[in-house]
């Protein structure tokens, strides 16, 4: 018997003792329609991870072509990488049958779901960033997917017009040495957050060659950490309050007297995942991150873990969107760290574009 077969047999034998994502949602008595949306999003993340695992091979083949195709510009004014388009298509394909409407960071307008009229009662809407951190793909830095789920009403004139307090579930996947999926449940995350790891050696109940297994139940973010995560290279453009906090944090002169270290990957899902587990905060002082697709879902997860998300003045979950692609400053992580940072005042930077 080969080593691979031994590994497959061992995992198959262990499977009855492990909690898969569908089983977990059933144990938590989550509404069936919501469970279907979450599981569809999880399948999309698994499919995206498979595409990412082969990306260097695909990119190498494309680079050998005489005229490599240049990416188009998305609604954000950003040049799309081919993988951005692939991830967006995968997510839409997997989820569209289970929701009333969808909104993607890569799409200008709302996407209608394919539910039949009678199924649109008590249905859900989902906003998602199909591939966060795609600028790092060329160097194989961790990337991710983010989504937020809220009740859908066909009677409401415009979907995606409520604050993040309307979210009933949110999630993100991190594509790294392993594929981790973290989901939060309930209004403001009142039912907690839980982490799952993709095991490609197990077959899911749907018959696909993967399954997400519960590995981080009842996740909690410590009240205070020792790390901050933002681009220190932009310090000359920071407002005075943020400069003062970082100056004090490096010297143990904040109210908590903690001596902070900097950790910055420039991939939001990866920076947030580390922050959730290790404590501290991550973010961007510019109005750069998208409220619907990044800020609100991650804040839902942070609050589910006992943390907090703020734009520097207002909790991110309390902000009402004016449009599908609103941007906001983001400071998110351990609750005492965010409270102390906000107390310095003047931490929001004005809008500015950088070339790198």
Radius of gyration: 20 Å
Secondary structure class reads alpha+beta
SSE order in H/E notation? HHHHHEEEEEEEEEHEHEHEEH
Contiguous runs where pLDDT drops below 50 for at least 5 residues: 1-13, 66-70
Number of helices: 9
Spatial ordering of strands, largest sheet: 2-1-3-4-5-6-7-8
What would you say this structure looks like, in words?
- The chain has helices spanning 3-14, 21-27, 32-53, 55-63, 82-95, 240-250, 268-278, 291-304, 335-343, and strands at residues 101-104, 111-112, 124-132, 143-151, 169-175, 179-185, 193-199, 211-216, 227-229, 261-262, 281-290, 308-310, 327-333.
- The protein is of the alpha+beta class.
- The strands form 2 sheets. Strands 2-1-3-4-5-6-7-8 form an 8-stranded mixed β-sheet, with helices on both faces. The protein has a 5-stranded mixed β-sheet with strand order 10-9-11-13-12, with helices on both faces.
- The chain is globular.
